[in-house]
Amino acid sequence: MSSRRAAAPRRGARTVAAVLGALVLAACGAGPSGAPAATATTASPAASAARPAPPPAGGVLDYQLGGAYPPAADVDVVVRDRTAPPVRGVYSVCYVNAFQTQPGETAWWRRAHPDLLLRDARGRLVEDADWPGEVLLDTSTSARRTAAARVVGRWVDGCAAAGYRAVELDNLDAFTRSGGRLTQGQAVAFAGLLAQRAHAAGLAVAQKNTAELTRRQVRAVGFDFAVAEECQVWDECDVYTGHYGRHVLEVEYTDTGRRPFREACAARGDRVSVLLRDRDVVPRGTRGHVSEHC
């Protein structure tokens, strides 16, 4: 999926979550590194040896990045921001903005890890053009990838400590918005470090969008399933099912009309999780909320 096509659903789905996350961190009086998610956990050798299980194939999905709320009784899989708790008794996936900063956390990155933020030739921070305040992490060298993985890895560990079963690493496609300063290979290498950290903590790992990855790259990272936004709209769903079979969480959005959702249900609804959501993924009870599955 190209960056501009992916930008609207991906950013729209996490805009509210970013604000809520910043408020939670502010209330706690701590920056990103001091949030509860920074608590490290150590996986046992037995846990590390077994590959964590992905979400149940074809399970009913609820995508709650705009704010957590009690899921319906038939929901099997919930995706929530890392600042929210998992749902007890439901397979919960932890959303982590892994390749860019959240707007409310950029100031912290500038103070604590200025060398890990991508800059242009004039020393200016490279922001996502569509979302001011979201600065790309600099994953251009092995040393910087390792250092950034230590920071983001603490959040991944925190997801496991909270009780999540899997992690969704967002902005894998940030390299497409770097003006040529980052490459796909560097993104894959960084994702591999985070996947290794997640697996060690007992978490399955989702590939988020970025359909241009090759099968070899997918295997090199160690992704276990996919979260694909609007793959019906952009005719990319076969890429994800080709890599992951039934282990795909597909999210279509209402502002492209209901036809893509109906087509997705007819094509794959009996095999993979297909969900229709409002673009801002607002909580149930909020005006504009839509959450329907096949």
Note down, in words, how this protein is organized:
It contains eight helices and nine strands. Helix 4 (142-162) packs parallel to helix 5 and helix 5 (184-200) packs parallel to helix 6. The chain has a nine-stranded mixed sheet. Helices cover 34% and strands 15% of the residues. The protein is α/β, with parallel strands linked by helices. Residues 1-12, 14-30 and 33-48 have low confidence and may be disordered. The protein has one domain: Alpha-Beta Barrel (TIM Barrel), CATH 3.20.20. The protein has helices at 3-28, 45-49, 106-112, 142-162, 184-200, 215-221, 237-244, 259-268, and strands spanning 61-63, 77-81, 91-97, 166-170, 204-208, 225-229, 248-253, 273-277, 291-293.
Q: What's the overall average pLDDT, rounded?
A: 87
CATH class: Alpha Beta
Tell me how many strands there are.
Answer: 9
How many domains make up the 3D coordinates?
A: 1
* Overall radius of gyration: 18 Å
Return the string of H and E elements. HHEEEHHEHEHEHEHEE
Main pleated sheet: 9 strands, mixed
Lateral strand order in the biggest sheet: 1-2-3-4-5-6-7-8-9
- Structural class comes to alpha/beta
Morphology call: globular
User: Which regions have little confidence, pLDDT < 50, spanning 5+ residues?
Assistant: 1-12, 14-30, 33-48
Number of helices: 8
Terminal Cα span: 23 Å
| Topology-level CATH name | TIM Barrel
| Proportion of helical residues | 25-40%
Protein name: Endo alpha-1,4 polygalactosaminidase
Signal peptide: 1-37
Keywords: Signal
InterPro entries: Aldolase_TIM, GH, GH114_TIM-barrel
